[in-house]
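pls read this protein.

:::
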Amino acid sequence: MLAVPGLTPLLGISLLARTAITADAMALTMIVVVTLGLSYAAAGAVMAALTAGVALGGPLLGRMIDRRGLRLVLLITLVPQLVFWAVVPVLPYPALVAASFAAGLLMVPVQAVTRQAIAAMTTVAQRRAAFALESVVGELSYMVGPAVVILFATTVSPGVVAWGVGAAIVAGGAGIALLDPPLRGEGETIGTAPGRPRRREWLGARMIAVLTMGFGVAMLLNGVDLAIVATLREAGQAPWAAVVVAVCGVASVVGGLVYGALPRPLPTWLLLGLLGLVTIPAGLASGWPWLCAAVVGLGLLTAPTLSTITDAVSRLTPASVRGEATGLHSSAASAGFALGAPAVGMAIDVSAPAGGFAAAGLAGLLAALTGFLLWRSETVTAPPVADLTRT
């Protein structure tokens, strides 16, 4: 995959920008808690505003990319990001909440653009391996970004860290603009209003099934992070949470690489169902060494599940609306991340930390079952999806 022309620099720039984007929530949390001296609940409201903006802005920016092209959308998003992160350290709390929503609405669509470009730069046979590699990049960004923010926020200052996060986001978006990767394969064109298929022609039961599973896996993963912290805090081993999360991340990287090399894919619902099943018993672990062992299976299935969802979105979508579809995928994932922690937190509050793993696993199982039923409900066999703008 790295030999595909343009793919290596794309993944490198994507890693930089996505590492910063995954760290933005932690950077804002440090601003609220340390600089403003407010509670973690107040920081949660800022995170909710940012997430709501990302969820609403994803499809809109994707549709604009389909219609107007990549560079215009990057210009529209880079300028607000530059302004937002420059003034974050001095904003009063009410203004920070409102500005965070606007920043989320106009977040640089690095992940969606990377996925669109991969679909355009690879053949159908190569995409599963390419998206597995993209999931590995995503895992690396989640492992590095928040940890770097915590390290520098405690040794330098939250304001300087916020400036660094903003600079990395802007640098990543500018790098993608300079690289200008193709978003359409050979023979595919930018969708115009007359040539765009109607939404009901591609947003059918199977696409909704895939988006539902994307929502479910995001809810599961965010819930697992909270359950890990709660379990180790109860055992008096909270500092070891970073080690457990790192073990899970390394296992996910290994799982993604192995899955990308397999000759045949596995059904998305099956991977998500297995992920849910191995998550539930992780709550039985009593200390950090056992919890490290328990999350290995969870990690091995994470990147394969994420990559197969991304691959399914690309296969089910005509190229002329690929931006809007990837935006919907990002919105579904954002909604899952937003609901995962509160839902699992409620389960922990009414039971025990082990209940958090059970709630996260059951959310994954429910999403897998729903996705399976929706997929099977579309009984009419349709020809392979083609770009309706081709001549």
Notes: Residues 124-155 form the longest helix (32 residues). The chain has two domains: 1-185, 199-380.
